[in-house]
Write a structure and sequence with these properties.
By secondary structure, the protein is α/β, with parallel strands linked by helices. The protein contains 11 helices and 14 strands. It has 2 domains: about 200 residues, DHBP synthase (Alpha-Beta Complex); about 80 residues, Threonylcarbamoyl-AMP synthase, C-terminal domain (Rossmann fold, 3-Layer(aba) Sandwich). The two termini are about 35 Å apart. Bound molecules: threonylcarbamoyladenylate and magnesium ion.
Length: about 325
Amino acid sequence: MPILPGTPESVARAVALLRSGGAVVLPTETVYGLAALVWDTAAVARIFELKARPTFDPLIVHVADLAGLERVAAHVPKVAETLIARFWPGPLTLVLRKRRSVPGLVTAGLDTVAVRMPSHPTARAVLRGIGEPLAAPSANPFGALSPTRAAHVAQALGTKVDLILDGGPAQYGIESTIVAVEPEPALLRPGAVAVEEIEAAIGPLARQPRPGGAMAPGRLPVHYAPRTPLRVIDPARVPLAERAGAAALSFREPFEGYAATRVLSRRGELREAAAALFEALHALDALGLARIDAQPFPDRGLGLAIMDRLRRAAAAH
Ligand code: TXA
Ligand code: MG
């Protein structure tokens, strides 16, 4: 499995591999993705297999442009057009009614498809080169931490994929925000675009998908988990005696007595903290300590996405 920088030659190689049914790791601005041609059900099946991902968990389809969107979406309502004009290319995924031609394996049998137009230049170059939509979940084993660097992917899936394109550390470092458009705009997963920004563009988002409305079957409570047990707790309240042998993950400041500490943003910026989150969790997890104490984040802006990931990581143990 070669790891190559995103040069025109390696992009051409990725395109050729994808055309012949390969599974290729692409850098995106959120996290690294494991891509296959959306129409190639054998290649898509291999993605599920490589990730050990249950097939009831649908994939996100990545497109280069609006023509790509029209290949997979049956209908683009006005509110989706507004969001597209404001946030694409970028880390917002829209759930729309799908075209019949989109394989049921990609959408887990749903009549909707999740679509986004990534902004990372290497992802865009591959999408333009192949001229077809690509199905790409995050390039991690199912339930494990998402990869924000090529090295994370090489470690977890390295020998199994056909090619890893290295696009450097991911700019946002946390997955895209997922919004269902119909029957009413609803937040399915908090992510790299703050909910407040979306609401400023289209008005209030429903927070819980309504029964019978759009669902995110992948929103299992256990997800994004390090192997080290993690709890969400303010380290300031943890007695010194309990800190030895454990790691702290904090927002702004380090805490005494922990065997290791990662501070996500000394300046106290939620965007910077979100970008550093998975990288810090990967690093702390590699130390093999007894526990990670993760400080709670404010439930606003990108803090919402950070808390979502931390709660799921905590639910794993
Ligand atoms: O930032 C991202 O979104 C990254 C990069 C690679 O683009 N991708 C990503 O994919 O996070 P993945 O597979 O790890 O998460 C996709 C989520 C899953 O929770 C899945 O359930 C949800 O999207 N999803 C996909 N299709 C859906 C649909 N039709 N309706 C509701 N949720 C859907
Ligand atoms: Mg994922």
